[in-house]
Write a structure and sequence with these properties.
Blueprint lengths: L1 H4 L6 E2 L9 E2 L3 H53 L5 E5 L2 E9 L10 E9 L5 E10 L1
Antiparallel strand pairs: 1-2, 3-4, 4-5, 5-6
Length: about 140
C-alpha cells in the first residue's frame, strides 16, 4: 500500500529513496502518447490492408469459378452441337448463351458459328464473358 500512496498523476514521480520530492519527467508522457498513437495507426493500417485483400481474393475466386463454368458450357455446346440461344442457371448464377452465324461460307459445306456466353450473379452483375468461333 505504501507504494500506491507515492504514485502521482501530475507527472511528478517519487524518487527511489522514498523521501518525497520526486523526479519530474518533462514531456515524456507526450512523446509516449505520440509513439503509442503511431504504433496503433500502423497496426490499424496493416489489419485494414489484410481485410481488404481477403475480400478481394474472394471476388477473384468467384470470377475464376465463373470462367470455368463458361468453359465447361462451351465444351458441352460443342460436343452436343446445341446451337440454340438459351438462358439457364448454374447454382445461383445465370448463364446466357447466344449462338449466331459468323461471316459467309465461301463455297464450303462448313459454317462458322460465334458462341457468346455471359455469366451473371444473382444481382444481374456481369461476372465473366466468353466468346469462341466454332466450325460446324
Amino acid at each position: 500500500m505504501a507504494l500506491l500512496k507515492n504514485i502521482s498523476l501530475s507527472g511528478v514521480y517519487p524518487d527511489k529513496g522514498g523521501k518525497g520530492g520526486g523526479v519530474r519527467l518533462k514531456g515524456s508522457t507526450l512523446i509516449e502518447s505520440i509513439v503509442a498513437t503511431v504504433i496503433i495507426m500502423f497496426c490499424f493500417t496493416a489489419v485494414t490492408t489484410i481485410y481488404v485483400n481477403v475480400f478481394r481474393a474472394d471476388d477473384h475466386t468467384r470470377r475464376f469459378n465463373g470462367r470455368m463454368i463458361l468453359k465447361n458450357t462451351a465444351l458441352k455446346v460443342k460436343t452436343e452441337k446445341t446451337f440454340l440461344d438459351q438462358t439457364f442457371k448454374v447454382d445461383e448464377l445465370t448463364v446466357e448463351k447466344t449462338v449466331s452465324k459468323y461471316g459467309e461460307s465461301a463455297g464450303s459445306d462448313q459454317q462458322l458459328w460465334l458462341l457468346k456466353l455471359k455469366l451473371f450473379d444473382p444481382d444481374k452483375k456481369l461476372l465473366s464473358e466468353y466468346k469462341e468461333l466454332i466450325i460446324y
